Amino acid sequence: xxxxxxxxxxxxxxxxxxxxxxxxxxxxxxxxxxxxxxxxxxxxxxxxxxxxxxxxxxxxxxxxxxxxxxxxxxxxxxxxxxxxxxxxxxxxxxxxxxxxxxxxxxxxxxxxxxxxxxxxxxxxxxxxxxxxxxxxxxxxxxxxxxxxxxxxxxxxxxxxxxxxxxxxxxxxxxxxxxxxxxxxxxxxxxxxxxxxxxxxxxxxxxxxxxxxxxxxxxxxxxxxxxxxx
Length: 229
Fold this sequence. Notes:
Elements: H1 4-10, H2 13-19, H3 25-39, E1 47-51, H4 57-62, E2 68-73, H5 76-85, E3 92-96, E4 108-113, H6 125-134, E5 136-147, H7 152-164, E6 181-182, E7 188-189, H8 194-204, E8 208-213, E9 217-223
Parallel strand pairs: 1-2, 1-4, 2-3, 4-5
Antiparallel strand pairs: 5-9, 6-7, 8-9
Helix pairs in contact: 6-8
């Protein structure tokens, strides 16, 4: 999510956990639908990597559906908390690592950049997507998600809820629009539209699909078939 860096700098891991304890059923449904979309495309034999994994919320859900899942996060507190959170998932490993300098000895079958994480990377999106594709084995797939425009009202309500909990500063309602949430303390959470993701997919040079899920998230799924054009 675009606010991941803010959370890494401003919240401890237990407060980050509270971000996802929402009172809004529509937001919880968004969390579940996003994970279900990926789960339904796993065969159980994949080696999966999640970028910007936080404390392992998505990893825990997907661990039973793959052979191995590895998550990386830049915040040591998130990883420490996550190692306890994931104690019942023996095939899940959470590591402290910079998502801009990912180094593993073996490629992955699936790479996840979910919950609007692409907006958090603070780099040109296509450049980062090309880095993601380098982490995949031939035939592997990258799942990159952002918010659907249809989810705007629910997303904004969720951010106001975080403010009420003391997890974020006050939201600037007048400045928050067109998929961008602005805080009065300088906080800014952007997003990628369906059109943005389609442009990234075309520019990647690989086969891709764009899917809207449950009117809450949009996915760019890119497959690494041989070399890019």
